[in-house]
Amino acid sequence: MSAQNQDNLSEISNLVILASDKSVEKREFLYEKIGTFLVNEGQSFSMSEKKLMAEIICQITGDVEKSIRSHFAKQLSLKEDVPVELMFFLANDDIEVAIPILRDSGLLSEPDLLKIIKHRSTQHQLAVAARDSITPNVCQAIYDIGKNDVTVKLLENPTAQITPELLVHLGDQSEFIPEYQAPLIKRPFLPQPIAEKMYRWVSMALREYISENFDVDAKVLQIDVADRLQTINSISTESDPSAKLVSKLHTAGDLTTGFMIKSLRHGEIDLFELAFAKLLDVDLEVFREILYADNSEILAVACRSLNLDRIIFKTIFDLTLSVRREKDSILTPGTLNAPMDFYDLLSEDAAKKALINAEFMQGTLKYASTI
Question: How far is CA 2 from CA 7, 8, 9, 16, in A?
Fold first, then answer.
């Protein structure tokens, strides 16, 4: 056995002895000592020896100050000669510790990132969304969690490998989720058809950006916009009531979820309610019972019956929460959060059946019994 190996064994034996001491002071000293060994380029520990030290780190981390753990993670984040298991462990620590690992470490694999996206906090998800060159599967998983702020962070990441299919979908959603518009339009190499379609509903500033940065004829785009808005402009005068506006849009085939969400975002609750009721083909009073029901699953069923994307459902739920608060002085905990897991399990056909089941709508029958 070489002198170096003997020295390493001696050092590790001392670390094991220190690990048996449960005092906070000794454990913090041990944590920093191991950190020095793992970070120091001059140390020649084998990978098996580093794995043993990593196991000790994982065992004692709960007794170590967050500032110490954070400093260690920053020093380790760019290294490649450390155990992957340790990097994954640090990436799952509190966000102050995890962020340099999530942002910079090349040792985290796609499966590692998918687990973090699924199980960790919004802050962890934001950090993953900002990583360089995240894969299409990771991009899709970030979108699938249904958090607009995380999706925006993904769109702002120029190296994220977002698939053309997801870009098209996000372009469509940008009509009723304005936060997507600017980062999407300004993405490198955005397919021109997406920009052309978005031109119809983005702000004047973004229209100018599209005209200047995409090889399209702005005059042609403006004609398209005029064609699309002709019906709305011709009937949205002060003399036309909301019900007539919605009815005419529906007849012209221009009553869309985008119009519905825009009405809600602009505080036009009556237009939103009338549009949603028309799309559901129910009376306004029936729809209001759906929207303001104590059981949030009823609204989920209504949205799924129209086969609305889960993000649209969450947007509707979140935006109408304040309205429901005004109508009910006390909200039960079940009405505070959109039931996304429930929504993901719904099918369009089953939702339509539940929507016409009087007992389910009245709250006397569980959804599972309507299937």
Answer: 9, 10, 11, 21
12 contact partners, CB below 8 Å, separation of at least 6? 49, 52, 53
Q: What is the dihedral of CA 88, 100, 137, 192, to 10 degrees?
A: 180
pLDDT given at position 361: 83
216/218 Cα distance (integer angstroms)? 6
**Secondary structure class of 159 (helix, strand, coil):** coil
- Helical H runs in 61-158? 66-76, 84-91, 95-104, 110-119, 122-129, 136-144, 148-155
CA 104 to CA 282: how far, in whole Å?
52
- Do residues 277 and 271 make contact, with C-beta atoms less than 8 angstroms apart? no
Torsion (CA) 299, 301, 307, 309 in degrees, nearest 10: 50
Cα separation, 181 vs 361, whole angstroms: 37
CA distance 87 to 119: 16
Q: What is the pLDDT of residues 240-269, one digit of tens each?
A: 467 888 888 888 888 888 888 888 887 888
pLDDT digits (tens, 9 = 90+) for 290-321: 888 878 889 999 999 999 988 889 888 888 87
Q: Which residue has the tokens 């090349």?
A: 106
Determine the Cα–Cα distance for residues 250 and 275; give it in Å rounded to an integer: 8
Q: Which two tokens stand for residue 371?
A: 């299937």
- Alpha carbon distance 162, 143 (integer Å): 10
How many CB atoms lie under 10 A from the CB of residue 215? 5
The one-character DSSP state at 77 is: T
Residue range 162-183, pLDDT digits in tens: 999 999 999 988 988 889 999 9
- The amino acid sitting at 36 is T
DSSP class per residue in 334-362: GGTS--HHHHHH--HHHHHHHHT-HHHHT
Q: Which residue has the tokens 């799924």?
A: 304
Global pTM? 0.68
3-state helix, strand, coil split of the chain in percent (to 5) is 70, 0, 30
C-alpha 297: how far from its chain's center?
Answer: 21
